[in-house]
Amino acid sequence: MTGRAPATGRHRARRRFGQHFLEPRWAERVVDAIAPQPDQTFLEIGPGTGAITRPLAQRAGAVVAVEIDRDLAARLRDEAIPTLRVVEGDVLSLDLAGLGLPGGTRVAGNLPYNISSPVLFRLLDVQRQHDLFADATLMLQREVADRIVARPGGRDYGPLAIHVALAAEPVRLMTLPPGAFRPVPEVTSTLLRLTFLPPERRPDLPPGFDEVVRALFSSRRKMVANGLRGPAARAGVPVADVLARAGIPPTVRPETLTPGQLLTLAASLHRTA
Prior knowledge:
Blueprint: E1 21-22, H1 24-34, E2 41-45, H2 53-59, E3 62-67, H3 70-78, E4 84-88, E5 105-110, H4 116-130, E6 133-141, H5 142-149, H6 159-165, E7 168-176, E8 181-182, E9 189-196, H7 209-217, H8 224-227, H9 229-235, H10 239-246, H11 259-272
Parallel strand pairs: 2-3, 2-5, 3-4, 5-6
Antiparallel strand pairs: 1-8, 6-9, 7-9
Helix pairs in contact: 10-11
């Protein structure tokens, strides 16, 4: 959620929504980093009290803001900003493809820390199905950003980095201290941009890919042969056959496998079955 409460009164942050409102001077820096253009449409996740929403609406062609807090949604709607449409709802369950957004829509938002990973996976899923977004500029807890940009072999490398790497190119834009928000969180935040890959550069996910990744990274420091036992048993195929087909030694650790190797492994499991 973003922003300072309107002149009618300061909105008290609601813990159940993970609300931390961005201070105006930081909102200006964030919007400058987003660099909205007059011909662009934005989907804003969690506009809050509108510190980012208003300048976005001034500089972009259109903003569709999804807000779960009905009081904040009503306040923004009452401002009757011509280029702003406020949608009350939960971004995790809302039909984003049904909002009438044009192709090439840009996404912006300050994701509540408690649901940032599910929201990211939701955006990736919508993009994979509908190819709707050009990019997403998001404020995240720094540790989540570390997990997104992590590379194979690093301690933060895991399912989030893998799924993002197969769909987008992530770049850190800015670090925001706890004091940039009210109430002040206990963590540092990162402004991160995901530039989504065009369909021709985005590989298809083979059947069972999610299952394979989850199984391997639930025991990331064990040998890949051990982590693959569950999926292979459910598929009714020997682990050794799957690994041989994929060209992956049984003794390597899952955390060293590239996204491409994991795609090959999941595809090999499916073909072997």
